[in-house]
Amino acid sequence: MDGAADLPSGAEDTGEAAPAVSADSPERFINRELSWLDFNTRVLEEADNERHPLLERLRFLSISASNLDEFFMVRVAGLLGQVREGITKPSQDGLTPKKQLAAVDDRAAALMSRQQHTWNGLLPILARAGVEILTAEDLTEDEDAWLEEEFLTNIFPVLTPLALDPAHPFPFIPNLGFVLCFSLEGESGSMNALIPVPNKVRRFVRLPAGEDDAGSRPRVRFISLERVIIHYLRHVFPERSVVSTGAFRLIRDSDVEVDEEAEDLVRSYERMLRRRRRGDVIRLKIDAATPHALRELVTTKLAVHPNDVVLIDGLLGLAQTSELIPDDRPDLLFKPFEARFPERIREHGGDCFSAIAAKDILVHHPYEDFDVVVRFLKQAAADPDVLAIKQTLYRTSKQSPIVEALVQAAESGKNVTALVELKARFDEEANIQWARALERAGVNVVYGFVDYKTHAKLSYVVRNEGGLTKTYCHLGTGNYHQFTAKVYTDIALFTCDEEIGRDVAKVFNYVTGYALPNGFERLAIAPLSLRETLYEAIEREMEFAKAGKPATIWAKMNSLVDGPMIDKLYEASQAGVDIELVVRGICCLRPGLPGLSENIRVKSIVGRYLEHSRIACFGNGYPLPSDQAKVYVSSADWMPRNLNRRVEVLCPIENPTTHNQVVDQIMVANLKDEAQSWRLCEDGHWQRFEVDDDAFNLHEYFMTNPSLSGRGAALAETFPRMLTVAD
Fold it and tell me: Which sequence positions are flagged as catalytic?
């Protein structure tokens, strides 16, 4: 690729050549769990990034902590389970579960230490900016009086003090439970007690305050809920004095198996949700200031192995620091961005069907409004000519306009099918509730396969036009969730292409009726053909390279884990194919290894928006970017679960306008980005690009430059064509 092989400015080589790694050595892979921890470290790094507004830095800290909680709940829980069962089979990188667990413990401990260091570093900066997190000693007399009344009115009624004695055994503490522990003295003697911190009360109490001394901005003062409880403990234990206090928080195994032979999957998942709350303790985090006697009491009663106990010198539950982001300090947040609505739909009087019939539309979230998806389905629900609607639901919001549109369509007599995925981890309960609401409205609710998750993002509308049926489809890389669509970058295609329409119908029939399709015209789906389609595209580039023609692959995804797919990329690199990968999260491929992957470069982008779209571009005998390239968007990452155990869709992008948008705009911008980018080095570590304030930032680019697809005739000529990667 002309110019693409050059490192962006600031991304300097580390110097020494990496040692040779053979094509069959486990060392050709990076460990999945350690790669994920590296990704979460990159997220945490954004909390220290002074280019971000202050409260956005705090948000990155909260995200990093929340991510780590889920990592322990699922991934570490899985490793612990394997160790307990005596499983010694190594992962593809050659590490046994026990060795992985040891490496994860070391890396996670360092990450948690860095999180606390970041938190402690942010506190004085926040205070100088007018956002203060207080101790009880910092309260003024007026604040103390107000807070005591707040405690007695709104906090005390939901507290449950729990004495610990033979008549009051140690209680069950649920997953993510946060508990205060006390040693108390009174006339009747000493005792120990617990107070679970209620999870339905905000973790941080904001004190009433006016403006700051300059009178130009709101004064923001918070105090943590645990400090409030301890400060007014005399109201809870009026006849006892406090000898010592402590706090702990625990994480339980949340990767609970479901009875896949169950006759009623909904009831099976409801039982699973109850079991998740009671899963084994994976990590016990104890405030380092907790006295030894209270530590021993808690660890003994919870039967936690010493290796699973972590002392925290700082704030327990950093994930909840997002509550410290007030609405009235916009000066400390990213400047608001108003997503655009496709102009071409406005030119058609707001008629989505008319606009799509004129030409395919590719929507680029969050720069283009998710409301276009909602409008598409609402129009379908209200249109008397629409006969049927089929919709996948993997993750959606609590007050989902998508679900409301499906309910409206069913109540108006249309044939509506909703494919609800119960196995969307941590959204199972919400999906069960949506499924029941849809059924009550008359929607045909299907739960898909027992063995496979349905992860494809599809809408399918059948409309009567002049006595003939016509299908309109929406195929996306992201979920039907109006809130995540504001912060996740995703791609969605609207089309009335007849071949794609027939293929989408086959996907629904495959999942709802186990009707195994006899072939697809345009789409590829996992687990049937998606892997093979990608293999064939990679092999085609290898043939071009061997023939001396340009051979290039550009791919973007969230995670690259699948061993056979990585080996196929290694094979392509050895054949001379030039490969650029944008992998936001986990990457098990090692780039730049002599004789194996020297033609592969990997970068990760972490910034204002979460990069979520999946794209694959193949040069097809021409240097990328090219009008001749084979271009696909997909719901699937390149992981074993996506390629082998999920229903996923890979869709070609062939209309010249949408094709240009994906290759010349989106992918080129991803490869050009320096401001938010990291490079994966040959030895497996990630190196941030050293850049100045003028470095290219793809998020800022797309916020200020509307995309070409859907802009309408009046604006098409004014589009500023994206610079090539070499520029």
Answer: 455
